[in-house]
Amino acid sequence: MKKLVLMAMAAVALAMPAANAQKVNQDAARSKMAKSDAEIADAKKNGKAATWINRGKIYFDAYAEPTKDLFPNAPEMTLQLTMGKPVSVEEGVLGGSPVIVANYEWVKVYINNGNVVAWEQTREIGDNLYRTAIEAYAKAYQLDPKQEAKIITGLKSITDALLMAGEVQMTTGKYAEAAQSYADALLAQTITPNQQPNPEYLFIAGYLMTVDASQKNETDPEAAVASFAQGEQYLKTALDAGFKDEDGNIYYYLFHCYYGQKSKGADVYFPKAKEALLEGIKLYPKNEKILDGLMQFYTAEEGVGDPAELVSMIDATLANDPDSYDLWFGRGRVYFKLQNYDECIASFKRCTELRPDDFQSNFYTGYFFIEKGNAMLDELNKNVNMSNQAYNEAAAAINSVYAEAIPWLEKAHELNSSDAGTVEYLKNICFRLRDEGMQSKYEKYNEIFKTMMGQ
Question: How many domains in the chain?
């Protein structure tokens, strides 16, 4: 495939011998910026909103000029029509996948399966161009709020460009740069009162800084701490603005940002990390990332607390809301982490009472009976000094636990007959219990599973 793409690029080059190199009119852009600089230095022109609106457009155009013809998923074959002939073409790797790299004077473009997937700008016309543009629009609004419609139009162009830049930077693994782009995209939405800032951009920025910090942890711990601190600011500001993602992962990332700053003082950041997780699990008791984070945090760091306090917290909430499916679901997950299988199963049984026809609650009730049986079997296998009679009695007790999983999994299968995992569990349990009257069920589910697997 790589050779075919390279040949395609070469074919375009042969078909269009007159194609020029990438056209970036930097002289014209710099001339306009110099003229704008002179205008704002003029006392009379400096006081006009039109001067600043024009400045905003000039500086934004200069920022966008080197990449104005690039879009994600653009067909490779259009590149030379819009960008001119690349200086060179080579093979490369992006995100672990092979790509073709088309090198231009101002940018390198990454191509995969015939489409543009990302790019990296290698030269700029000037520094801080889009920020200067944002500042210009802010000054224009300060001078004449009646020009808000024009100002918003210009700011929207900046926001859209920064969002696309953030997406591309994320694809190329430049997480800190991507975070800055998303944060500044929101900044451009805060200049006038009739805009509608989207705090989700700060959530994305905070997540990206968490990823950036995690990558730096091994090689540059000091830089990692700085990234965690920046991520904390983004996420806290998003929460303050009322943003919460659908799954509540913002609390999980905020926990990591606090925990990642423990070198600055565990006595300060551990309580913050714990509070982020506790607040998250209170609002999103089904969030497995938060639950896993809590269990790992409680067990990895001394003095943080007893994991059982999570159950106490959930039970206190359940006292006020005893019919909360999500709270019972979360309670079951916590008890599973604590390896208290009976309470775990009791919690999921309660979920099935609240939602009898819910696939998840029926599946997990059966699943945790299996986990209980597995734990009992592990303990039995560790005991090598048992008599045959004692061993057989213990094995029978274990089989009875496995058998309790069957009706729950069968109900789950009725609710979702396409879930292969449910059928596989049923097949395996019935095979184990085939000498106890489950042979026909084993044959039934074995045939269903083979059909699902295309055997």
Answer: 2
DSSP-assigned states of every residue in 219-256: T-HHHHHHHHHHHHHHHHHHHHTT---TT-HHHHHHHH
148-171 and 200-216 are packed helices; what angle lies between their axes, rounded to 10 degrees?
A: 30
Domain that holds residue 417: 357-455
Instruction: Pull the structure tokens for residue 107.
Output: 């940018």
Q: List, for residues 242-284, the tens digit of each pLDDT value.
A: 999 999 999 999 999 999 999 999 999 999 999 999 999 889 9
Contact 140, 151 (CB under 8 A): yes
- Tell me, yes or no, whether 383 and 298 share the same domain: no
Which is nearest to 40 in space by CA: 141, 139, 186? Answer: 139
Read off the pLDDT of residues 376-402 as tens digits, 9 standing for 90 and up: 999 999 987 888 899 999 999 999 999
Q: What percent of the chain has pLDDT over 90?
A: 78
Question: From CA 141, how far away is CA 153, in angstroms rounded?
Answer: 12
